[in-house]
Design a protein that fits this description.
The chain is of the alpha+beta class. The protein has 14 helices and 20 strands. The chain has 3 domains: 101 residues, Uridine Diphospho-n-acetylenolpyruvylglucosamine Reductase, domain 2 (2-Layer Sandwich); 126 residues, Uridine Diphospho-n-acetylenolpyruvylglucosamine Reductase, domain 3 (2-Layer Sandwich), CATH 3.30.465.10; 214 residues, Vanillyl-alcohol Oxidase, Chain A, domain 3.
Length: 478
């Protein structure tokens, strides 16, 4: 029998035997792939190229049984366990060194019940998968802005995008979930069943179980929406950001406008001499009638003298994909993020300063206004606690070559420190990198202790540790 070295939960390694692997293969429908076997590198690849980890075993799961059997295998052998949905998370927790990786990406089913306004979504589905199915009926889940993002990680951390002002966070539309816990049980979680687990997974990440089905409430959207971009010279940024901040106050929640500072990509509606120059972009989407949206966005044209604009009626599905070319897999990425309750002159000055020294053409600073429905829920309604957040700021470092790591990461960290005095003191958990474990309590604020209680109940051994980890305080006796 061949011996295989595997990493164990609390560090170190142990050995398992080829017969154990073959036994697992007989018990699941999906593939079990070992280091060096065909398909191994494709299966372990994730969006952020900074992460290059090599699990010993990859289980590509096809359904609940596959997940349950693999969880039991990892738990019984005390093996380090990672969970991959679409692999888009910045921290790279979807993959581990030496352990077992459960790959949920084959589980991509999206089923829509238009009579009940419900969508039933498996954890390997992307936002694009969800949009394609729901928009047939003129319905949508409020999700993110990059169609290749996975629905699972997005939802479990909160989830925000163009529809957040009108319909709230992604997790606010979650009605129920099927969850496989570390003891191998399949539980249904909702307000009526296993309500403590349901509370915890709505923002608490993958700390408590593996969700194998999400049930979402759907909302009327599209299929056509008013959307587009205004591109202004960076020299006008201070004046425009101040006008933008005022403009957003009291604006109908059908309209979302975000600010992005970056080097201009070669967009066809921009003069060629603008390509590669620092610019301020106002990106928008209006979820109501197109004609009313045109009236509401007219003041933006008076913010300054734009390099160009490209605004019109577009399919919602297409608008959800418009930023995909800027966020393709295979690049190196490092983010730093703050939440804000307002945009002060101080933070605007910091934003403009650092936008003037972008270390690579792909780096950007963006401000997402999410004020509206998401602010109306109580902070303790679910694990996601940051209900006073009006703006989410993300410093997106993105580059190609490893030798540029220090330059870009230093730029992002420096910006983070300079902008911290103006921030709300909280953070969006999905934007936290792998070196920010000290911010987990900030992410959950007053809900952290209750999350620890849930962790003690559902995962005392901390088998599900590869996430922004909520550590149990009760030691497992199993």
């Amino acid at each position: 029998m061949t011996e295989i070295k595997v990493a164990i939960i609390n560090g170190g390694e142990t050995k398992i035997y080829s017969d154990d692997i073959e036994d697992l293969r007989t018990r699941i429908r999906g593939e079990v792939i070992l280091f060096g076997e065909e398909g191994y590198d494709d299966a372990r690849e994730i969006w952020n190229a900074m992460i290059d980890r090599k699990p010993s075993i990859i289980a590509r799961c096809m359904g609940n049984n596959d997940v349950m059997q693999t969880v039991n295998f990892a738990r019984d052998n005390n093996i380090l366990l990672a969970i991959k949905g679409a692999g888009h998370n910045i921290a790279g927790n979807a993959v581990c060194d030496g352990g077992v990786m459960i790959d949920l990406s084959p589980m991509k089913s999206v089923r829509v019940d238009p009579k009940k306004n419900r969508a039933y979504v498996e954890p390997g589905a992307t936002l694009g998968d969800v949009d394609m199915e729901t928009q047939v009926f003129g319905l949508a889940v409020p999700t993110g802005i990059n169609s290749t993002t996975g629905i699972s990680g997005l939802t479990l951390g909160g989830g925000f995008g163009w529809l957040t002002r009108k319909y709230g966070l992604t997790v606010d539309s979650l009605v129920s979930a099927d969850v496989i816990t570390v003891d191998g049980s399949l539980l249904h979680a909702s307000d009526k069943e296993n309500s403590d687990l349901f509370w915890a997974i709505r923002g608490g990440g993958g700390n408590f179980g593996i969700v194998t089905m999400f049930e979402f409430d759907l909302h009327p959207v599209g299929p056509q929406v008013l959307s587009g971009l205004f591109v202004f010279p960076i020299e006008q940024a201070k004046e425009i950001l101040n006008k933008y901040s005022e403009y957003m106050k009291g604006l109908p929640e059908d309209l979302s406008v975000w600010a992005v500072l970056r080097q201009a990509p070669p967009l066809p509606f921009l003069p060629q001499e603008v390509h590669g120059k620092e610019v301020l972009v106002l990106a928008l989407m209006y979820a109501g009638e197109v004609a009313e949206g045109e009236r509401l966005i007219e003041p933006i044209r008076g913010f300054g003298k734009a390099h160009g604009e490209h605004v019109g009626s577009n399919p919602y599905v297409a608008w959800q994909q418009v930023f995909d070319p800027l966020l393709t897999p295979g690049s190196r990425n490092y983010w730093k993020s703050h939440n804000f309750s307002d945009l002060s002159d101080g933070v605007i000055d910091v934003i403009i300063d650092f936008a003037g020294k972008l270390p690579t053409p792909q780096c950007e600073i963006f401000l997402a206004n999410i004020e509206g429905q998401a602010n109306r829920l109580a902070a303790d309604a679910m694990a996601y606690a940051n209900r006073d957040t009006k703006y989410v700021l993300n410093v997106h470092g993105r580059w190609e070559e490893k030798e540029d790591d220090e330059m870009v990461i230093s730029w992002a960290r420096d910006f983070f420190e300079k902008s911290a005095p103006y921030a709300a003191g909280s953070v969006y958990v999905n934007f936290m990198t792998q070196d920010e474990t000290d911010r987990v309590r900030e992410a959950y604020g007053p809900n952290y202790d209750r999350l620890v209680e849930a962790k003690n109940k559902y995962d005392q051994m901390n088998l599900l540790s590869l996430n922004q980890n909520i550590k149990p305080t009760v030691q497992s006796t199993g």
